[in-house]
Task: structure prediction
Amino acid sequence: MNKMIPKNTKKIILFLIKHFNTLGFNINQISKETEISVGSSFKILKNLERDDLITKEEISNASYYKLNLDNQETIKLCELLLLGEKRELQGYAKLYAKDIDKFEDADLIILFGSILKKNDFKDVDALFLTDKVKKTAAFCLKMSSIRIKPIVPLIMRKEDFIRDLKDKSSAISGILKESVLLKGETILMEMMADVNKK
Result:
């Protein structure tokens, strides 16, 4: 089903997921950030708005768009696209993702940092949403001894993650912008929807 969604539509929705706790973005910002022409962005946003997948707010002569997280269809579509992004990983990122994904005691795992951007990364950054701190640290240590680069875990409890999701200036906002979700797409979208309501 993921293949049925046009590439540029996917790009825009993923961009809006990863920048969900902002006021929204206007067409020029979306076009620039996703490297999709203004004309194509406008057409895609119109279609998404028509299907009630995004909302539009007028602020001083400009339209600002964000995901409609009150719509279950939006949530399901986002989950699907996040899963697809994980499948598209390549090289070292794919290799480490397979290893890290084996950890069963986390509700959510996010791969982020230099491994997603370059081949000469120093370490592998992964966020684990779990209360099993020692178990997570031991797992990462074991994986680090097998692979050439160490896995550096950022271990968070759910309540701390939600608190940081609400805070636009938190490190979590930065992490989400440049990340790939390995596990927990349903939980992530549920938390985003909850934060969005408040």
In short: The chain has two domains: 2-67, 89-197. The CA atoms of residues 26 and 62 lie 7 Å apart.
